[in-house]
Design brief:
Layout lengths: L2 E5 L3 H13 L3 E5 L2 H9 L5 E5 L7 H10 L6 E5 L4 H9 L4 E4 L4 H16 L22 E4 L2 E4 L4 E4 L2 E3 L3 H12 L5 E2 H9 L6 H15 L5 E3 L3 E3 L6 H5 L4
Parallel strand pairs: 1-2, 1-3, 3-4, 4-5
Antiparallel strand pairs: 6-7, 7-8, 8-9, 10-12, 11-12
């Protein structure tokens, strides 16, 4: 009998899914926050986890990234009220096995769980490599963008400062990547929030906190604030700039 962990903070939703899955003879356990989910999944005795992306304490994508970084290969189906393509792609790149936008049909959920269990029972990996690098920004060589003291490897999704690897949370990397592919263009706060979180309704404080953490890790001059508008990563100096001399 397959064991399913439900990670969601909506009690009515959880009760409905528990009732559905137990009626299909699954063993079901539920937790309502990311910290409890980490403890449960580290036990390693679940066949599949249903993970809501929007949790009250830990962002679901950050939780997934942490699990995969620890080597935890529990199959994960991501759940979210947003069905935007970029958010689904990010979740799959971080190691998710499937993505179901809410609301969904009960039979579709059961079928997705069954399909995932068949795949993992066949001995295949529970999650694959990243689907591909981000669109190459101006000034990038290959899939690497060089900034003063900072290097971004889009294929490996790694960031280096002065040659040393810098550990970024998934949403921090998503913000940095979006600004990097738009290097030289001031990007509105609303555009960043829509791309990274799939909504413009989050307060700008959420974005400001991510920018602040990126500056602490990478340096204050990597990301420039456009007061009253948004942020940008400055364009690389042109040959004319470098050729300018004083009279």
């Amino acid at each position: 009998m397959a064991r399913v962990l439900i990670v969601d903070d909506d009690p009515r939703f959880v009760r409905a899914i528990v009732r559905l899955l137990r009626g299909r003879k699954y063993e079901v356990e539920s937790v309502h926050n990311g910290e409890s989910a980490l403890h449960a999944l580290r036990r390693g005795n679940f066949d599949v986890a249903l993970l809501d992306v929007n949790l009250p304490d830990i962002d679901g994508l950050s939780l997934l990234h942490q699990l995969r970084d620890e080597g935890n290969r529990t199959p994960v189906i991501l759940l979210t009220v947003h069905g935007r393509a970029h958010e689904q792609a990010l979740g799959l790149r971080l190691g998710g096995d499937d993505y179901i936008p809410k609301p969904f049909d009960a039979e579709v959920l059961v079928a997705r769980i069954q399909a995932l269990l068949r795949r993992t029972a066949g001995g295949g990996p529970s999650f694959g490599p990243p689907t591909g690098p981000a669109e190459r920004p101006p000034g990038a060589r290959g899939d690497v963008l060089e900034l003063p003291a900072v290097r971004i490897d889009f294929t490996a999704r790694q960031v280096f400062k002065d040659g040393a690897a810098v550990r970024l949370a998934p949403m921090e990397y998503a913000v940095l990547e979006f600004l990097a592919v738009n290097r030289g263009r001031a990007v509105a706060k609303e555009e960043i929030m829509l791309h990274v979180w799939g909504t413009e309704r989050r307060t700008s404080r959420t974005l400001a906190e991510h920018i602040s953490r990126l500056r602490r890790k990478l340096g204050d001059d990597v990301i420039v604030t456009q007061t009253g508008f948004g942020y940008l990563i400055p364009a690389a100096p042109t040959s004319l700039d470098s050729a300018t001399t004083t009279p």
